[in-house]
Each structure stands twice: as C-alpha cells, then as structure tokens.
Specification:
The protein is of the alpha/beta class. It is built from 17 helices and 17 strands. Keywords: Glycoprotein, Membrane, Receptor, Signal, Transmembrane, Transmembrane helix.
C-alpha cells in the first residue's frame, strides 16, 4: 500500500511539472507586493460542493457551509485577536468530490504549484488518509487539520505525524460508555449498527463501524464484559427486517448500542415499539450520534407525518432511547459567532438561494474556526522566535499538548494531536416533552457528570440480561394441564408422607415413655407436704378400723384408760384383710390363720 501511494505521488508530481513547467515561478510571483516574503500562507480547504451521501459525508461538510466560517476566523485573527497581520492567510477551496482519488489529487496539484502551507477539511476519511500520510514528505512538512476523521487508525503518529484532529477520537465515546455502564452495572451488550460493507460495498466502512469498533476495543480490555454484534445496511433494510433482527437481539441482552442515521434510528425504534421492547421497561437503546451533533430536541417527529399515529408511536418508543452526541456550547460568544456566520452565509454567499434551505451550523463546521485559530497561534509563536513558518514539523509541535480559548470555550489538544472532546448524554424528559442533557462527559478530566435525573420506562434502569425476551418465551405464563396434575399429585404425596412421619414419631415416643422403669405415680413422690397428707390419711383409716373392731370403746364407760399402747404392732387376719391396731394383752384374732 505504501509503495502504491509513493508511486502515485511521484506520478502526480511528474505530471504537474511536465504540464506546468513555470508553476513554481508563478506561485512565487503570486505573493502580493508590500508583504513580507513569508506571507501570505496558503491554507487549502478540501471539501465537496455537494453534500453527497451520508455514507461518504456523514457530517454534511461542504464548501458552501465552510466559507463563512473561514471568513469570520481570518477576520478575528487579524482584527480581534491580532495574532497575524491582515491578509496573512490565504484560503483556497478545492472540490474533492468525496472521492479517495480526486480529493488527494487536488491537494497534490496545489503542492506542485507551491501554494499549500496547510491542509484543512477532507470530509471523506478515505480521501484524508493518503494526504495525511504524504504531507510529512512535502518540503519541510505540511500540517493537516481535520474536523471529522475520528477513527482510531488515524491516531497512528508514525504514519500520520502531522495530522491534528479538532474533534478528537471515537475512543472518547468509548471512555464515556465505560463510565455509563459502570454506573448502572451493565456488563452484557449488543452492537446493532449500519455498515454498508456488510453487503460487500466498495464505499468502505461507515462511521458507525469506526465508532462502535472503538467502543468494542475498550470493552475488550474489561474482563467481565460480554458483547455480540449485528450489522445491517440501511440502504436496503426495511422495518420488517429490523423486527426480526431485534427479536434475535432481545434474547441476548437488554442493552442495545445503536448507530445509524436519524431516519433509520426512528425506524428501528418503531420496530421495537411493535415488539413491545420499547414499552416493557426491560430494554434500553443507546444511540451513538455520528451525524451532525445537532441535538434535535424532538427527533421522533417527521414533518410529513404531522399529527399521525406514527409520530405518537415513535415518541413513546423514544422513551427507551438514550443518545450520546457531541456537546454543544451554550456560551454567548458561540451564539454570537453562529449569528455572524449565518449572516455572512446569506449576505455574501446567498446560501439559502443556492441550496434551497436555511444555513445550519453544527460542531463539525464550527470546529474549522478553532483549526484556523490554533494554526495562527502556532504561527505567531514561530514568528516571534524567528523560525520558519513553513516548517510543518515545527508548527505541529507547537499546536500539540496545549490548551487555548476557542470559540466554544477552552480547547485542549493532547500530546498526540487529538482534541479532548466533550459529549452529552441525552434523555427524553416527559415533563418538557423533549430530549435534554442529563449528563455530560469531559474529555479533559475523564469525568461523567450528571446534571439531571434519568427517565426510565419502569422508573428504574433495566437489568442487562433478558428476563422474558420480546415474546415472553423465556418465562412462559402457562403450562399443559397434565403439568398441573402431576404437580398437585406430588404435593399431595408430600403432605401425606409428612403427616405419617409425624404420627409415627409420636407413637414411637409414647411407647418409649411407657417402657421406662423409672416411671412412678405422682403420689409416690416423697416430699414433706405429701408425707404430711399421707400421715393424716393413715390416722383417719386407723380410727375407722378401731371403731369397727372395738365398738364398746365408743362407750365412755368401757373406754380403756391406758394410753401406752398406741404404738402397738400391726396384725392382719387372713380372710378379713383388716389392719388392726391392738394391744397384745387383750386382742385375740378371730379363728383364722395368721398371716
């Protein structure tokens, strides 16, 4: 691949020098008189005139949208910030046609004409890559700026040593995702996104592929995270297909990471509504917005479906959707800047007349202002040190690993030339009936800061594992009749076995108690109180027997005066069974044998 690129460059150089032998002299003579030989410095902006398809231009960058931004930036650098002299920068626009062949060729032609000191733009990532790879070999190096190429592969500073990215990298979104899923303890995910290459398209990978691939790479560094993936081409996929794909996804996890165009996202959410996934509260969809970062407050509405049931269904479905998008600045300076740019677009370039629609600002367009400002700051420092402003390696070194105040606030560039971007986490607020920011991620501090309450369909975040699935097949509500009969019979048997066991144990215990040799009657217990009662009973019985055996003793005249024989022996007469108290001198047992 490298050999091909080098060969391609040499062919272009040879062709340009052959067809335009005086181009070097013409470029040198084009500098306006009265200026320092160092000025003007040429910035080549490579963008398409037409927006083209979202596959190649997902951020809708065009020359018509960029021109008023560059005008305002150049004016502020000279008049407001006084970083460079007036007209020190010259902006040249080339139509790249969103082609990975035409785009690099247009820039190489400018280099051959010695009229390129910096390159900005290149909306199509596959057109940017060869330019960023070759620019290190042009003269003393030509710095390259992009506001759209956030793929991980372009972070390789061995192959792209002069590339500065004003919107950072998709890895920032991955760090935001890690913070979010850790907060809700989610560990299972399903990637569901658009990628035209799934059907063998020659247009390359989509931005959704690059963004979710960055998330996947960070997830792979987490030991307990499990993920699955499903790709589709939104060019050929319809709602019926989304329904089938969501049915399969619903059996794998409850957390679906979604990426597609706004219209496709709406179709997917309507499919989720039909399945009940968006209404059950068991599922949540996290939408990665890689379109324009425009923060549509009511993305479910379509003008051609005003007051239609589809809009109401989509609104209900969007309650299960959270969106991650680039954060918009709310500074008054940014709002004034946006108004100036729109005014310039209409008055100088007749934007609405030419395009038939109103000028719309987004983060990827406004970032060109910060790109020009950063370049001017580095040039100012280089000139102050008496160094060559056309040394791209030196200029790039002064732009990296620094912070400056841009149109959106503080802009921090890391040591790898990537901006620390901030992202918003948006949620549908039922009270306001629109999407609002509930949390934002600061790339510079690597912190997720919550600013409002999340809104969940069931009032709480779902689990990450499916409980029932979209059709409740994982938790069936009923069983065949014989299942209930078997269950009832089993329960009856268990109850009877339990009753028998209790009865058996009770009978066994009673038999053991009956067989105990130490068991005695209560009245046989020897105690002071019981002995006293027993003595009273014995005395009473003795008096009754004595009265019966000696009836004459009841007569006071015949009663014996002796009291010395109450302690006499006891005699029992056979056949009578009486226990008598007697005195040996006077008592004679009846004519029965002694016992």
């Amino acid at each position: 691949m490298t050999t091909f690129v080098v060969f391609f460059v040499f062919v272009l150089l040879f062709q340009s020098l052959t067809n335009h032998p005086g181009s070097f002299r013409q470029a040198a003579a084009s500098y306006q008189p009265g200026y320092s030989p160092r000025f003007p410095l040429d910035i080549v902006v490579g963008l398409p005139y037409d927006e083209g398809t979202r596959l190649r231009n997902p951020f809708r960058l065009t020359i018509g949208k960029a021109q008023p931004v560059f005008d305002v930036a150049v004016e502020d650098i000279a008049r407001k910030r006084r970083l460079l002299p007036n007209r020190a920068l010259r902006i040249t626009y080339v139509d790249t046609q969103l082609s990975d062949a035409v785009g690099p060729q247009r820039v190489v032609e400018r280099y051959c004409a010695r009229s390129v000191d910096a390159v900005m733009g290149m909306a199509y990532v596959f057109a940017l890559a060869p330019v960023a790879r070759m620019s290190q070999y042009w003269q003393q190096g030509v710095p390259v700026f992009t506001t759209s190429a956030m793929v991980d592969e372009l972070g390789d500073r061995v192959n792209f040593p002069l590339l500065t990215r004003l919107m950072g990298t998709y890895r920032t979104i991955a760090h935001l995702m890690i913070k979010t899923v850790s907060q809700f303890k989610w560990r299972r995910f399903h990637f569901f996104f658009n990628d035209q290459a799934v059907h063998g398209s020659s247009q390359g990978r989509s931005e959704c592929f690059f963004s979710l691939n960055a998330i996947k790479n960070v997830f792979n560094n987490q030991k307990d995270i499990v993920w699955t993936v499903e790709m589709f081409s939104e060019q050929v996929t319809r709602r019926e297909k989304y329904v089938k794909l969501l049915q399969k996804a619903s059996m794998l996890t409850n957390i679906i990471i979604l990426c597609a165009s706004p219209d496709t996202v709406r179709e997917i959410m309507l499919a989720a509504y039909e399945l009940g996934m968006a209404r059950s509260g068991e599922y949540v969809f996290i939408n990665i917005d890689v379109s324009t970062g425009s923060h549509a407050e009511k993305p479910w509405i379509r003008a051609n479906e005003t007051n239609s049931p589809e809009n109401e269904k989509a609104k209900e479905a969007y309650r299960a959707l959270k969106t991650i998008s680039l954060r918009r600045s709310d500074r008054s300076e940014y709002k004034n800047f946006e108004a100036r740019v729109k005014d310039r677009a209409e008055k100088k370039y007749n934007y609405s007349v030419k395009t038939g629609k109103e000028y719309e600002m987004n983060n990827f367009i406004s970032a060109f202002y910060d790109a020009v400002l950063l370049y001017a700051i580095a040039l100012n420092e280089t000139l102050s040190e008496g160094l060559d402003p056309r040394n791209g390696h030196n200029i790039t070194g002064k732009m990296w690993n620094r912070t400056f105040v841009g149109i959106t606030g503080n802009v921090s560039i890391d040591k790898n030339g990537d901006r620390y971007s901030d992202y918003s986490l948006l949620d549908l607020d039922p009270a306001q009936d629109k999407f609002v920011e509930v949390a934002y991620y600061s790339g510079a501090s690597n912190e997720l800061k919550q600013v409002a309450q999340f809104h969940w369909v069931n009032g709480k975040p779902p689990q990450d594992s499916p409980i029932c699935g979209w059709n409740h097949s994982k938790c069936p509500e009923g069983y065949p009749w014989y299942v209930y009969v078997i269950a009832a019979a089993a329960l009856l048997i268990l109850v009877m076995m339990g009753a028998f066991l209790i009865y058996y144990r009770r009978m066994k215990l009673e038999r053991e108690l009956t067989a105990m040799s130490w068991k005695i009657r209560w009245e046989e217990l020897d105690g002071d109180e019981s002995r006293a009662k027993e003595k009273k009973k014995a005395a009473k019985r003795a008096r009754k027997i004595d009265a019966f055996a000696n009836p004459d003793q009841n007569d006071p005249l015949l009663r014996s005066n002796s009291r010395s024989s109450f302690a006499s022996d006891k005699v029992t007469c056979r056949g009578v069974g009486w226990l008598l108290v007697w005195q040996p001198d006077s008592f004679v047992c009846p004519a029965w044998d002694w016992v």
